[in-house]
Design brief:
About 8% of the residues have low confidence. With 421 residues, the chain is mainly β. The chain has 2 helices and 34 strands. It has a 26-stranded mixed β-sheet that branches. Strands 25-28-31-34 form a 4-stranded parallel β-sheet, with no helix packed on it. The radius of gyration is 25 Å and the shape is elongated. A hairpin with a 2-residue loop joins β1 and β2. The protein folds into 3 domains: 75 residues, no CATH class; 177 residues, no CATH class; 122 residues. The longest helix has 18 residues.
Amino acid sequence: MGGWSGLRVLLLLILSVSLTSILFVRGDNPSPVGWNLSGGGFCQGTYTIFNTTLSPNPGVYAQNCQTGTNLFNATDTGFLVNSALKLMTFGGVIHFRAQQFSIVTTITILGNIPGTLGTGNTAYGVNLIIEGSGSGGTAFNRGSGVNGTLLVAKTVGMTMMQTSTSSSSVTCTPASGCTGAPSMSGFQLRDLGFDGNCKAAIGFDGRMHETAILNRYTNLSFGSGCGTTTFTTALILDGEEDTYVDRLAFDGAGTLGTGGAATDLQWQSLLGNVNVLNSFFGGQVNLLLSAQNVEIQASTLGSIKILQTAAATTGTVIHLSGNYLANIIGAGIIQLNGNTASVIRFDGNAIRTTSTIPLYAGAGTVQNAGFSGNTWAFGASSNWNAGGATLTKQVTAGDNHVVTGSAPTNFPFTIDGNGNF
């Protein structure tokens, strides 16, 4: 019996050591601290980010899902995520739980992942996913609580997340595309909400050297409900050629009273494509873009502003298919801004114009425009081409239908007795 008793004592000692061996490390102080908050087996990805109010160390944690070790910071999720990235030599997944997280320090990807501290037009392939537990669909004045993961800006004028510290220095020209910051491919950002918190912030700045990037941005929301002071620009993807976005929601209806950004999405890809799918835009300018080819499908938006004319060897093709182009936002649906679009195709959209929202706004040139299978609502005193743009050729397939209103000023077609043109 004495031998069995001694064995039980030994087993209990081993179990005790095992249960207390999972340590956590402060993100701002790398020395081990002997207190474990590993939780109930909820760890996902490479690091799971969560916060707690529990004693003795309330704050935000990044748990390593392989070792159980925790990084810790009292208040700043941005600092903590940067600390986790420094340990992710081979990339991986950063997973946020369904909570609110304060971003005081900008989350910067390149330069924190080991081996990615490059300058200029250095190219990196990263195996990195940053994901939440849903994009916070009820967070922006659409109910109570946080129905997902919400990152909240805490510093005035800040960038909440960026690919590199030189992202803001990128310049884009028709001849060279976008240059001036390292490029990053193999990246996914998904299932997160960005709350600008009235800080005039940038949500995500992905400006980089232009090449075939193939990144993915899916199921993201941007907003706060405190007017255009929420974001100056919610999302910037200049240089991210052949990337696509899907299921983005930019909060608001384009007025100070209902929220929204000054610009929802800025995207220049002068040597490549811009692809937007299944998204909702609510800011003052929905899309600020320059590209060879623009594909916008099954989305709700009211304004597209062209930043630059693409290279003469390629031109710009904009294809709008299956969209709701009837929100009364901005200065016009297509804002040419003095630039030239080679081809614009309108296929299967619902389109509305008013006395202040023309189809074409500002000077510029559209060399060829085609209209097929759209429905139209022409408000009183509508104007098709308010800025006197040069519309070289406009073609209708004959299957457009006017639901309400009469032909606007500068309308190039004839509406028949059944409301078709």
